[in-house]
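Following up on my earlier message about iron/sulfur cluster. Here are the inputs again, as you asked, copied directly from the submission form:
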Amino acid sequence: MISVPDAPAAINALVEKIDAILPQTQCRRCDFPGCRPYAEAIVAGEADINQCPPGGSEGIVALADLLGVKPKRLNSKHGEERSLEVAFIVEEDCIGCVKCIQACPVDAIIGASKHMHTVITDECTGCELCIAPCPVDCIAMQSAPVLQTQRSGTKPESKQQRAERWRSRYESRLIRLKRDQRERDESLRKKKEALKKLKSAVIAP
Ligand code: SF4
Ligand code: SF4
Ligand code: SF4
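Thanks, got it. Here's what our run produced:
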């Protein structure tokens, strides 16, 4: 049982610290819709510290240290610890349905409707969330190239830097999705308003 502070600011600070340990693949293997929600669930006592396969034993030990509890084995119900893989698309088979783009939590896929899609390998977290929605099974996983760990060219990127980059892309995507939803709602509201005006003009003598 972890000890949780009472004050909202202290609770939030603890969530931030846990989230900073998590690898930010946003893969949902922990049974939560992202790393931050998993961090919140740990603090709320709704999740254990051993549910994140990408974080593996190193992540569990770091969480245990932070929370003052004993480390545990990774719960195999959530998957196994393994080295980073990235998605690739067999482009000649892609029908351009955009379902993979909609599923990718870090906007690591580019392409337009009815056109071939491509994974930005360097931004792929290996979450595999794009695989199931693909109607023609043209997405597969492969070992991450050196590029993933030596992104800056001369100096290898640390796990921490990589996690921060992925978190930032994930947060940008959430902001974009909210903005798109607001724009759709506004457009629908305007259409309804115009229709209402048109109806009253037709009915009026
Ligand atoms: S990396 Fe995946 S399993 Fe780990 S906390 Fe994030 S979403 Fe959950
Ligand atoms: S391309 Fe696929 S595997 Fe890579 S981050 Fe996006 S959804 Fe996950
Ligand atoms: S889900 Fe599959 S077929 Fe659809 S755009 Fe993505 S890769 Fe192409």
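One observation from looking it over: The mean pLDDT is 92. Hope that helps, and feel free to reply on this thread.
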